[in-house]
Amino acid sequence: MLELKGIYKIFNRGTINEKVALNGVDLTLNDGDFVTVIGGNGAGKSTILNMITGVYSVDAGLVIVDGIDVTRMPEHKRAKFFGRVFQDPMTGTAADMEIAENLALAARRGKRRTLKFGVNKKEKQAFRELLKKLDLGLENRLTSKVGLLSGGQRQALTLLMATLQKPKVLLLDEHTAALDPKTSAKVLEITDRIVSQNRLTTMMVTHNMHDAITYGNRLIMMHEGKIILDISGEEKKNLTVETLLHKFETVSGTEFANDRALLS
Predict the structure, then answer these.
(1) I need a surface site. Which of 133, 143, 163, 206 has the fewest CB within 10 A?
(2) For the segment 162-181, what is each residue's pLDDT rounded down to a tens digit?
(3) The domain 2-93+167-263: what is its CATH number?
(4) CB atoms within 10 A of CB 201
(5) What is d(CA 135, CA 262) in angstroms, rounded to the nearest whole number?
(6) DSSP string computed for 82-102
(7) 5 vs 61, 85, 89, 130, 161, CA distance in Å?
(8) Do 240 and 213 touch, CB atoms closer than 8 A?
(9) Among 232, 180, 209, which residue's Cα sits nearest to residue 40?
């Protein structure tokens, strides 16, 4: 479903601030894979998502989605392939619009727009049923402005919007990092349910080592712009934070340096 072949990205090339963000990344996600991505500060985790979606252009390499080469495709054109949820709960929704209106925008993504009522009665009922599954009481607040929602409610809504038109790949960029532990756990539970029910090919960048181990069927670890570990199957099921840290230190020859991840 997603192939990255020999991806390189260097920022500020030729200057004193030159930074090799991605250094020959090769990665294949099969249909239905749920891959968690973890790494130290500056390892290239968020950069890899930005390369996939076209926020940054690649210096070398190929990005292929479901057999289609999107490497030179502009960001707005390749957006139809992806659903993305960001770290900031304020991103991904229109704060001054109602919950129903936000969902209607997501439902019409990629479709021909016409002059008619924004949200009809049939759609409202369908949205209520979808929101009920979140178990957050939002099904009774269709006319509420999204800006009035809590961070967790907003992230859950953003997840629903990102997956309403089933994307080829769902990209989660530390989407629970700004939430308190209880709310984070709830949003992760909703994430896992939506991904499983829709069998979505998913990449979840996280700083939480426990979450990276608990969720998904594969775990990749990045270091200095490279993928140094790719763990799946029984090996992933038996992983602990301690064994993951040991594997990282063995492969990289250095200690893991990410205070947030270690504290988590």
Answers:
(1) 143
(2) 888 888 999 999 888 888 88
(3) 3.40.50.300
(4) 22
(5) 31
(6) EEEE-SSTTSSS-TTSBHHHH
(7) 5, 24, 32, 37, 30
(8) yes
(9) 209
Reference 108, options 164, 27, 167; nearest CA is 164
| Residue reference for tokens 């038109």 | 165
Q: Distance (Å, rounded) from C-alpha 10 to C-alpha 211?
A: 30
pLDDT digits (tens, 9 = 90+) for 2-12: 999 999 999 88
Question: Structure pTM?
Answer: 0.87
- Contact 130/142 with Cβ under 8 angstroms? no
- For residue 90, pLDDT beyond 90: no
Task: Provide the b/e sequence for 38-59 (b: ≥16 CB within 10 Å).
Answer: bbbebbbbbbbbbbbbbebebe
SS3 for 21? Answer: strand
H-type helices in 38-111, by residue range?
A: 45-53, 75-78, 99-107
